[in-house]
Amino acid sequence: MGIEQLSCPACGATFEMGLPRDVTVQSVTTEDREEPDDDRVKVRPNACSNGHECYVMFRF
Predict the structure, then answer these.
(1) Does the pLDDT at position 44 exceed 90?
(2) Nearest one of 22, 7, 10, 13 to 49, comparing CA atoms
(3) Dihedral angle sign, alpha carbons of residues 21, 25, 29, 34
(4) How far is residue 57's CA from residue 43's CA, in Å, rounded to a whole number?
(5) Are the CB atoms for 8 and 19 separated by under 8 Å?
């Protein structure tokens, strides 16, 4: 597992998220996302240091 540096879409603050190696981050948004039908795409919640909840979508 690797640590990715991501930016909060609400305020631009940088936050870290542990993700499996060799994934591609597709989006970081404040809008709640449901799990896609594609087994190779996942959505995980996270929050920045300012408390903004965001959703990270990534593909294996």
Answers:
(1) yes
(2) 13
(3) negative
(4) 4
(5) no
Decide if 44 contacts 56 (C-beta within 8 A). yes
| Long-range pairs of 2-7 with CB within 8 A, sequence gap ≥ 24 | 6/46, 6/56
Q: How far apart are CA 46 and CA 55, in angstroms?
A: 6
Give the Cα separation of 41 and 5 in Å (integer): 19
- % of the chain residues with pLDDT over 70: 100
Is the four-CA dihedral 27, 28, 31, 33 of positive or negative sign? positive
Q: How buried is residue 57: exposed, middle or buried, by Cβ count under 10 Å (0-12/13-18/19+)?
A: middle
